[in-house]
Amino acid sequence: MRTSPALLATAALLAAAAAACSSGGSSSSSSGSSAFDPKTCQGGTLYVLNQSDATAHHLDPARIYTSGGGAVTSLIFRTLTTRHRVPGQAGDEVAPDLATDTGTASDGAKTWTYHLKDGLKFEDGTPITSKDIKWGVERAFAPELPGGIPYLRDWLAGGADYKGPYKGKELDSIQTPDDKTIIFKLRKPEGDFPYVTTATQFAPVPKAKDDGTGYEKHPISSGPYKVQSHEQDKSLVLVRNPYWSRTVDDQRLACPDRLEGTYGLNSAVINQRLTSSAGKDANAITTDTDLSPAELARISSDPNLKKRAVKGEFGETDYIAFNPKVKPFDDPRVREAISYAIGRQSVVNAAGGSSLAKPATTFLPDQAAFGYQPYDYFPAGANGNAAKAKELLAQAGHPNGLTVTLAHRNADYNHDGPAVATAVQASLKQSGITVNLKPYDDAGYGDVIQKPSSEPGMYLTTWGADWPTGGPFLAPIFDGRQILKDGGNFNASQLDDPKVNAEFDAINKITDPVQARPRWGALDAAIGKQALTVPLIHPIYIRLTGKNVKNAYLDQWRGSYDPAMVSVK
Fold this sequence. Notes:
Elements: H1 10-18, E1 45-49, E2 81-83, E3 94-96, E4 104-106, E5 111-115, H2 130-139, H3 151-155, E6 174-178, E7 181-185, H4 193-196, E8 225-231, E9 235-240, E10 258-262, H5 267-276, E11 284-285, H6 293-300, H7 303-306, E12 309-312, E13 316-322, H8 332-341, H9 344-350, E14 357-359, H10 386-395, E15 402-409, H11 418-429, E16 433-440, H12 445-449, E17 458-464, H13 471-478, H14 498-508, H15 513-528, E18 533-539, E19 541-544
Parallel strand pairs: 1-10, 1-11, 15-16
Antiparallel strand pairs: 2-3, 4-5, 5-7, 6-7, 8-9, 9-10, 12-19, 13-17, 13-18, 14-18
């Protein structure tokens, strides 16, 4: 059985929320938190100012790709489990939500059993049962409801060929022996299954209210708020669900009476509005916009603004990917030469400086939850090791240098755009490596790099974990059984090593994430010797809140504010 140390009584959660006024791990809280009292935090309207739709564009839980309880969607949809809502490293843990614990494993982690809490109700007052959760998971397989997490089809027994419940077919690997019990049968051991059950696909959906693709127009809430209106990519208004209370939900404070989201805003506009905090913007946060270097410079000289700047981290690595099927990257000496030649300081500078990024030499982020194990097999220092790079190039038959092409996105949104590409180009030049830059349209870049037949030999990309363990960070990139030839492939090197695949299987049998961590770190270190990627940076997030927002911190699971925990005047 795997139960989370984050099992919280309501009083314990409220005490933890009050403690958020001090730094925890890599997070720090905003001004005003010292006066925060979870017992009296009720009332007001919270405003969310975002570049993109905070609901991931859709309000159907089957179509939302998020885990841990997405920032805004977690206000509408409760799931079997959720993330532990506290700052610092403890926020990387799984906590029970609709379920009484984080799951009981049996059959070598191939079977997981959950029991529901008492008193759970939808927004219309009808009880939530295990059958509602089963229906919610099954409908996520329907081809007319695309966009959710990919793990269900791969992990659940019979999932590969299942097409959803709308034609009367059930998924036999999900069993509901009574209204309070749900059992999942997996086709292989998965110790991380409690992390997957934080996804919105594990939110209850009442079959009687489900009209397929039209469900997102009026989704039925199981969380503290229900939807009043939603205009995709433009706005969202949430109001209180009268059948929710903290007595049945010890994972959300839900202080504001109302939430209003505005989407499609420019990042500079968002930060300017938060900085000014005029009118309604004093009660505002953003869940997707970081401060720019120029804005950071202003904040550092203004004590009042500095109090409202919140710092945190999310498990992400920005890196150079190699396709060894393309010459000259089939030669490991060329890949190693490029690894030695990279001057990471220039990349850090391109990403906004040391306040917003730190150099990376490991693929796993440097956080304990991932099993981070430090290594640096190709030490380049801050500015690159040109001598070693030239030596390796000569051994590979390129004594006079080498010309390569670096593909990148034509926008700088994810550190895989022109700024970082130009920094890499300048850095490699010092080692005699001429880099021709090849930009791709932002919208089509993913299609190009995620299909083996069109994948470039060398390109910039980024990877962030769906939950904070080593599995979802390493497996999509290095497990040979996850290579997808027709698109959606993230295993750029197309590595299919039986020993590596076997180690993934062995670690997946471990149901205690703490015990699994050293194995993930060792696997990362072993793969790193092959120079299949060049880790460049791990980003740092710094965001601003309105002046009336209290108890704001960036959780390490997603690197974002949690609207379920903040309050406003």
